[in-house]
Amino acid sequence: MTPTSTPHNDPPNLFDEHAHLREMLRELAASLAARRATAKQLSELLEDARRQLVSHFEHEESGGFFHGLREAVPHYSDRITELEHEHAQFLSLLDQMRRRVLSHESEEVWRDDCDRLFAKFMENFAAHESGEHELMQEAYSQDIGAKD
């Protein structure tokens, strides 16, 4: 059984979505690194990043890539569940950053905290994205593609 092709379980579209997210995160990284954006501006950028990630994660999890893959190849369920768990961790890191930005601590303190949290976010996000791509390639080359 092959999953129905939708914008979110069709590999080229998933890669396009990931490229869009990477660009959005590069812009956020540039704003953090420049240290010119106000706390309000950074808070808004973090909230926008969160909204975009929530939308992407919802598409992957319900009716998209993960949903279709879980239906087509149930033995990947544990790996998919772990990737879904990581989604919540990414949102939590963004929420922590936003709380730090809006805290009443000195600017130097919250900026340093955000730099540390964002570096962790980006490192984990790169590994997560790689894991998704690896899972997709494995599933399509060994399980789904072999049945076509």
Mind explaining what this structure looks like?
This protein is mainly α. The protein has helices at residues 11-34, 39-61, 65-72, 77-102, 107-147. The longest helix is centred in the last third of the chain and has 41 residues, at 107-147.
Q: Which terms would index this structure?
A:
82% helix; 0% strand; single chain; 148 residues; disordered N terminus; mainly alpha
Which structural class do the helices and strands define? mainly alpha
H/E topology pattern:
HHHHH
**Roughly how many Å is the radius of gyration?**
17 Å
Name the assembly state. single chain
pLDDT average, as an integer?
86
* Poorly predicted segments: 1-9
Tally of DSSP helical segments: 5
Report strand %.
under 5%
**DSSP, total strands:** 0
Rounded to the nearest angstrom, the distance between the terminal CA atoms is: 9 Å
Largest sheet: none
Helix content: over 70%
